[in-house]
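SAMPLE LOG
Freezer: B-3
Tube label: C17
Construct: single chain, 364 aa
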Amino acid sequence: MEKQRTELKLKDMMNNIILGDSIEILKQIPDNSIDLIFADPPYNLQLENELYRPNETKVNGVNEDWDKFKSFEDYDSFTINWLKECRRLLKKDGTIWVIGTYHNIFRIGKIMQDLGYWILNDIVWIKTNPMPNFKGTRFNNAHETLIWASKDKDSKYTFNYKTIKSYNDDLQMRSDWYIPICQGEERIKVNGQKAHPTQKPEALLYRIITSTSKPSDIVLDPFAGTGTTLAVAKKLGRRFIGIEKEELYVNVCKKRLEKSNAYQERLLNYPLEIKYKRIPFGSLIENGYIRAGEFLYSGDGRYKALVLANGTLSYEDFNGSIHKVTAYILNRRANNGWTFWYVKRDNKLISINDLRREIYKQLL
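STRUCTURE (predicted):
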């Protein structure tokens, strides 16, 4: 009989980094409790020799024990175990991001599909300032790959499409992200040396958390390192849980979180993502925002239509809805009347869409 799992209370784990083995701690998190996971697991780089620059200075790469595995089979077993736990504790509409390099990301992607995850995108993080290939034996490895996946095919996952499009100057955000590697003051150091060899830039996590979660969501990082995910989650008003087995990194992360400040709540809203209930034009008449017998005007003032008591408009010899009359005027098959028509208030034109928003506020 399987040993009963001891579950930690979420409130005891919240907004904290936990020292311990990732898989063992993950087992203690309740089912269906996490909204978003960002995982930066060991890459299993299989480095055999030290690397030096042309000036014979040693490259401070990834040579820590936590990145070493005996074989591909050993690494696969490790990957299956943590990904199984992550899928269990994800909410039904939750998503996970996993980042890696050519050393591991293809193995991880295959395992994720085998476990039932549904891959939504692969994102290529293009490093604008990559480390050179000092030996000159291969192409300069200037990117890492991220897999974004939902718990399963039917998940109604969070994607703040309108917001992230606006964020990107009203262009669809593409799957190639040009972001520099962590450097300068952002790079955390201990005794003058990099605290962590693969510290991720805050800009990368900022984009991920902004686009695929909501304020107050719970964000989990099972390999927290120096806490980039947690610091950005805190800044963006998300709750967070971090797991890290290296005590040095945990201490660095705690100090980092103490210095991190959250944005004010009013700055964290997603107004573009609000899905309003359908409100017909007639509701503006019912609620007294528009009176039967007054005129609606086009934004440039060239056209006007009479409002009838039944919620339709009369323009010359044509009658119909705000949309049909607009399409008739513009000689189109269809047109959105909400953005075309205005009413006069104190000699100023007011969009009927703004009046509709006033009714929305009463319903929220």
